[in-house]
Each structure stands twice: as structure tokens, then as C-alpha cells.
TrEMBL record:
One GO cellular component term noted in the UniProt record for this chain: cytoplasm
Similarity-based family: Belongs to the class I-like SAM-binding methyltransferase superfamily. RNA methyltransferase RlmE family. RlmM subfamily.
Principal place of residence: cytoplasm
The EC number(s) this enzyme carries: 2.1.1.186
Name of the molecule in the record: Ribosomal RNA large subunit methyltransferase M
Organism: Pseudomonas fluvialis
Highest taxon above the source species: Bacteria
Gene: rlmM
Length: 351
């Protein structure tokens, strides 16, 4: 139980290691991080038996940027036949679980294993319920079984209120056929990630106004329009006719980095491919000068030192708002629909 397993986007194992190592040092949890390139997971192996639990208790899952899912536990070898008996025996060392998720890693090997997991889940669930190891209780920890192959599984636990919202941290979002581009799912995932569902009516209401910087062809604008908002779409490129026909979109062919609205708006979103420092400075100005209350912006990642650079930009944003004496909540995550980028959500609090 002394290992913390961390799911991440393949190719970002180094970032997951850097991130968890920084927090482990701050929480004085000793151990080492390791991650095989392209495996889509990393591990933090703690020197002490309760290290992984202390790390999870000392951190909120939401504050992690490159880590999509986590679980404390250990690896278990499985036989070709009767895997369930071996799992049941290993679970004697674990507390009873309140829910069960079977997971694979976001790699090609993982994709091939998902069918196995689908078939294995029902008989395993039945056996766990029968043995009293699974109680269907939201207050008990979630049992997360991450399969590396049919013969190797990480048996892990996480608090249901302090882990990913979806198995493997991957939301199953349906691409809306009317949306003009696939990146529409990025903004939809950002909302699911950063805004609790019960607050959507209030914080994403049809009474609101929004600005979409770098809007063409309109995947993000589509999401704002879908909520009923009046949107100013900024881009030199053409917007989809279907969006313009709604009558809710004003398209301005101007520079998204210098234009600001005459009246404050509720939302600003930005998906322009630019140096991340420039995008961060722009969103600081928008929120800081009161041009918008909430924002979702994409920060494109540099080639090297990706974790260090994101942390540096987030710190700079925090310092900027502190200097302006403003309270702003800042969250940042590499979403499933993000590639070489992370998504930031900012919200001005108070007046
Ligand atoms: C990744 S695309 C945006 C895709 C859009 N979010 C969607 O869902 O359809 C980036 C857009 O930013 C625009 N762009 C680049 N630099 C810009 C600038 N300085 N001001 C406004 N738009 C800009 C490009 O023309 C391009 O259409």
C-alpha cells in the first residue's frame, strides 16, 4: 500500500513525476517517483507504509495539473485462470470499498485491455458483493483496479470525493453533430471539470454574455451559444454559418490580444495558439481590469520544462492578482481533450 499510482496523458509521465515529487517534498513524504515514457502512468513509491495515504490526505485531487487519476496501493500478479480468487485474497489487506472502478492506462496496450475489463467487471463485482468486500457506500473509499495486462493489476484506493470524476479521468462526451469543430469538446470538458454541475444554471446562464478569442470556426462559441449566451467572436478567420444564423453571435475581425469589450462580459474564453506567457498576461488583464468575471483559456506548452513553466505562469498570475488586491480562484488541468496544452479556469471572487 506504499505506492501512489498516477494516470496521465501518454508522454507526460515526467510532468506527473515532477508534480507529485514537489508536493511530496512539501508534505515531507519521502520516496521516489518513476514513470516509463509513453506508458501513460507514473508512480510515487513511498519509503514509509503510510506515505501514499498521507500524500492523498494532504492534497486535493483538483489541484493536480498533469495527473488524471490517482490511487494508493500496490501491484498484484494475476494468474491466467481464476483471477477473482487471487484478488479476493489480496483484498483482505484492504478496507471494504464503497464503489468499484476498473481502469486501464491511456496507451495502445490499455485500449486493447478495455474489452477484457468490460467482461471481467460483472463477475468481479458480484464476487466482491458476495464476499462483503464491496458495500456500495459513497463514504467508503473507491476501489480502483488499474490493469496493465490481464496478468498485472494495481490494486488501489481513493476517496470518492478526492479523485477523478470519471474512470481514468476520461469523460465520455458525445460530439454534438451541429458543432463546427472537434475542439468544442475541450470547452465542454473544462466546464465539467471546473464548474460543479449544480452551478451550471447560475454560472452558465442564457442571461449572460461571452467573448471567444480566436473563435473560428466556432467550436467554443457553439458551447456558449448552446447555453443561450450572446457571444462576441473574435477571429480573422470565418465563423460557421450555422452559428451566425442563430443571431446570438457578433463576429469581429480584430486582434484578440489587443481588443477589449466596451461593457464587461460574464465569460471570456480563449483558444489562440500563442506563447503561454502572452496568454497568461492577457487573462490577468481581462480579469484584473474587470472585463470578465470568469475565463477559460488554453495555455500551449513549451517543448521543455513543461511542468516548471506552467507552475511559473500560475504563480505569476497569483502574484498579479494579489498585487491588484483581487481574490481570484485559479485552477489548471491537462484535460483529456488537451494535447500539448493545459486548460486554465479563472474566476473573480467577491466584487
Ligand atoms: C485553435 S483555433 C480555435 C478553434 C476554436 N476554439 C474552435 O473551437 O473552433 C485558433 C484560432 O485563433 C485564431 N487566432 C490566432 N491569432 C489570433 C489573434 N491574435 N486574434 C484573434 N484570433 C487569432 C486563428 O485564426 C484560429 O482560428
Amino acid at each position: 500500500m506504499n505506492t501512489l499510482l498516477l494516470h496521465c496523458r501518454p508522454g507526460f509521465e515526467g510532468e506527473a513525476c515532477a508534480e507529485i515529487s514537489e508536493y511530496a517534498a512539501a508534505l515531507q513524504v519521502t520516496g521516489f517517483a518513476r514513470g516509463k515514457p509513453a506508458s501513460a502512468y507514473a508512480e510515487f513509491v513511498c519509503s514509509e507504509a503510510d506515505g501514499a495515504q498521507r500524500l492523498m490526505h494532504g492534497l486535493r485531487f483538483n489541484q493536480l495539473i498533469f495527473i488524471r487519476q490517482w490511487a494508493r496501493g500496490g501491484w498484484l500478479a494475476l494468474p491466467e485462470q481464476d483471477r477473482i480468487s487471487v484478488l479476493l485474497e489480496a483484498l483482505q489487506d484492504y478496507p471494504c470499498a464503497g464503489s468499484l472502478w476498473l481502469e486501464v492506462f491511456d496507451s495502445n496496450a490499455g485500449k486493447e485491455l478495455s474489452n477484457f475489463c468490460k467482461k471481467f467487471e460483472a463477475p468481479l463485482r458480484k464476487a466482491l458483493l458476495k464476499a462483503g468486500r464491496l458495500l456500495e457506500d459513497a463514504h467508503k473509499p473507491r476501489l480502483l483496479l488499474s490493469f496493465k495486462s490481464g496478468r498485472e493489476v494495481f490494486v488501489g484506493l481513493a476517496e470518492a470525493s478526492n479523485c477523478a470524476l470519471w474512470p481514468m479521468g476520461i469523460p465520455r462526451l458525445k460530439f454534438p453533430r451541429e458543432a463546427p469543430s472537434r475542439s468544442t469538446l475541450k470547452l465542454e470538458e473544462a466546464w465539467h471539470t471546473f464548474i460543479p454541475r449544480e452551478q451550471w444554471d447560475e454560472r452558465l446562464s442564457g442571461e449572460m454574455t461571452g467573448v471567444d478569442l480566436g473563435a473560428a470556426p466556432g467550436g467554443w462559441t457553439y458551447q456558449l451559444v448552446r447555453r443561450g449566451m450572446l457571444v462576441t467572436a473574435i477571429d480573422n478567420g470565418p465563423m460557421a454559418e450555422s452559428l451566425m444564423d442563430t443571431g446570438l453571435v457578433q463576429h469581429l475581425m480584430v486582434d484578440g490580444f489587443t481588443w477589449t469589450p466596451r461593457q464587461p462580459v460574464d465569460w471570456m474564453v480563449c483558444d489562440i495558439v500563442e506563447k503561454p506567457a502572452r496568454t497568461a498576461a492577457m487573462v490577468e488583464r481581462w480579469i484584473g481590469e474587470g472585463h470578465c468575471r470568469e475565463a477559460v483559456v488554453n495555455l500551449k506548452l513549451p517543448m521543455k520544462q513543461r511542468y516548471a513553466e506552467v507552475r511559473r505562469l500560475l504563480e505569476r498570475l497569483q502574484e498579479g492578482f494579489a498585487a491588484r488586491k483581487l481574490k481570484v480562484s485559479i485552477a489548471c488541468k491537462q484535460l483529456y481533450h488537451d494535447r500539448e496544452e493545459v486548460t486554465c479556469h479563472l474566476r473573480r471572487l467577491g466584487r
